[in-house]
Design a protein that fits this description.
This protein is of the alpha/beta class and 267 residues long. The chain has helices at 19-30, 56-71, 136-144, 162-172, 185-194, 199-214, and strands spanning 8-15, 35-39, 76-79, 82-88, 94-100, 103-114, 133-135, 153-159, 176-182, 218-221, 223-229, 234-240, 253-257, 259-264. It has two domains: 8-114, FAD/NAD(P)-binding domain, CATH 3.50.50; 133-264, FAD/NAD(P)-binding domain (3-Layer(bba) Sandwich). A six-stranded mixed beta sheet has the order 3-2-1-6-5-4, with helices on one face. A five-stranded parallel beta sheet has the order 7-14-8-9-10. Bound molecules: flavin-adenine dinucleotide (FAD).
């Protein structure tokens, strides 16, 4: 691999131009360190700009960071370039192989910062590939982009705080949230405990809870979606699970809805 591409040399290469990569690049630029910011997509901003609707505040923030990066004239932004390989060279520096639409190219750096974001974790069940089943992040993205306007009823299931947030956003947008099922009660309690030190997030979490309660969504702990039958109408089966997550299928209850959103955190 090492003798394939001769790379342009930088002090720092940052992989990923989401908020984290941009913040790293802006900080480096402030200290006069030349960086190469590599982004696989054709725009910077990462997950902040995955929504169809852009918010003025996030756009302003990212523009501010970009301006800081561009002040350092020896810095470079490579959009449409995916880092696919990193290797350490004999002098201790790194070579990063990039895939672009023109083919492979390489850059070299003394330091590499990896800021490629996170992906959602998916736990499969029968019917999980049906078109009515979305990951929690995708459901949130479509909701905020006004793409779920035809959805009347939803069932949400999984673990993690995003469930509270998406459930409340759905309620506030007129979707009837039939069930919000959490696989673990202790996990939820730990998350709320952790919020005790973050007043802003705690207030947001309480607002989500109030919205869910106000809209009479049914919240179940130690339950999970175990089966989705989407042949005609969508029928989703929610069953109790034990402490290791094994479902008791015989006690499952079915619900009719238009959308099932599943979220098990990120990886
Ligand atoms: C499903 C989901 C929902 C979320 N909802 C919220 C929310 O409601 N509110 C909130 O504040 N935060 C939310 N977050 C968290 C939010 O996305 C992060 O706080 C923020 O976007 C993280 O910034 P980042 O720069 O680390 O990653 P990202 O924003 O994901 O940016 C990573 C960038 O790296 C690029 N990249 C990835 N691999 C490569 C590669 N090999 N080569 C080159 N470039 C690459 C990607 O194209 C992307 O632009 C959510 C995250 C997820 C996964």
């Amino acid at each position: 691999m090492s003798d394939r591409q001769e790379g342009k040399k930088y002090e720092v290469v940052i992989i990923g131009a989401g908020p984290a990569g941009l913040a790293a690049a802006a900080t480096a630029a402030r200290y006069g360190v030349p960086v190469c910011l590599v982004e696989s997509s054709h725009q910077v901003g990462g997950r902040y700009f995955k929504y169809a609707k852009r918010t003025f505040r996030s756009e302003q923030l990212l523009n501010l960071m970009l301006r800081e990066v561009s002040i350092n004239r020896s810095s470079e932004l490579l959009c449409g370039a995916s880092a696919i390989w990193i290797e350490r060279q004999t002098d201790g520096s790194f070579k990063i192989l990039l895939k672009t639409r023109f083919g492979l190219t390489a850059v070299e750096a003394h330091t590499v910062i990896i800021a490629v974001g996170a992906y959602e974790r998916h736990l499969p069940f029968p019917g999980w590939t049906s078109r009515c089943v979305l990951s929690m992040g995708a459901a949130q993205m479509l909701l905020r982009s006004d793409c779920l306007n035809s959805i009347k009823r939803a069932v949400l299931s999984g673990t993690g705080p995003l469930l509270w947030k998406v459930a409340s956003e759905m309620c506030d947008n007129g979707i009837k949230v039939m069930v919000v099922s959490f696989a673990s009660l202790s996990h939820c309690l730990k998350q709320f405990q952790a919020l005790a030190t973050c007043p802003r997030e705690l207030i947001e979490a309480i607002a989500c809870l109030l919205s869910i309660v106000r809209h009479s969504a049914r919240v179940l702990f130690r339950h999970a979606v175990v089966f989705v039958n989407a042949k005609n109408d969508v029928e989703v089966f929610v069953a109790p699970v034990d402490e290791v997550g094994a479902p008791n299928i015989s006690e499952s209850i079915s619900h009719r809805c238009d959308l099932v959103a599943i979220g098990h955190g990120r990886k």
